Amino acid sequence: MRQRSDSWHWQLDAACLAHDRALFFHPEGERGPRRRSRQLMAKAVCEQCPVQPQCRDHAMAFPEHFGTWGGLTEEDRDRLRKARPPFGRRTQRA
Ligand code: SF4
């Protein structure tokens, strides 16, 4: 059984602590190339982060609705959630 951790200790090792928080959360009205560029820079930080798996799990489990977490933008997380079958509606095995 997967446990949901209430611990935030993993955040102490977060690579984003050394960066401006604005890199990970879009300002009001940000669109198009500027948004994509910022998101790519945030993802590059996440790719070097030692706690990326914990961060990604957290963002998917809670869920976090805004910002880049674990290398996933809010659009990435929405796509992943839509691709997963709802809990309890998985295909039965014969
Ligand atoms: S994966 Fe990205 S958002 Fe998550 S803690 Fe690391 S740097 Fe921060």
Automatic annotation (TrEMBL):
**Which domain of life does the UniProt lineage start with?**
Bacteria
Q: Which PROSITE patterns match?
A: 4FE4S_WBL (PS51674)
Reported cofactor(s): [4Fe-4S] cluster
Which locations, inside or outside the cell, does it occupy? Cytoplasm
Q: Mind listing the UniProt keywords for this protein, alphabetically?
A: 4Fe-4S, Cytoplasm, Disulfide bond, DNA-binding, Iron, Iron-sulfur, Metal-binding, Transcription, Transcription regulation
Q: What is its main location?
A: cytoplasm
Residues binding [4Fe-4S] cluster are C16, C46, C49, C55
Which one Pfam family would you cite for this protein? Whib
The region called Disordered is annotated at 73-94
How the cofactor is bound: the record states:
Binds 1 [4Fe-4S] cluster per subunit. Following nitrosylation of the [4Fe-4S] cluster binds 1 [4Fe-8(NO)] cluster per subunit.
Q: How is it modified after translation?
A: The Fe-S cluster can be nitrosylated by nitric oxide (NO). Upon Fe-S cluster removal intramolecular disulfide bonds are formed.
Q: Where is the 4Fe-4S Wbl-type domain?
A: 15-79
Carries keyword Heme? no
This chain's function reads: Acts as a transcriptional regulator. Probably redox-responsive. The apo- but not holo-form probably binds DNA.
Q: Which family does it belong to?
A: Belongs to the WhiB family.
This chain's protein is named Transcriptional regulator WhiB
The species this protein belongs to is [Mycobacterium] wendilense
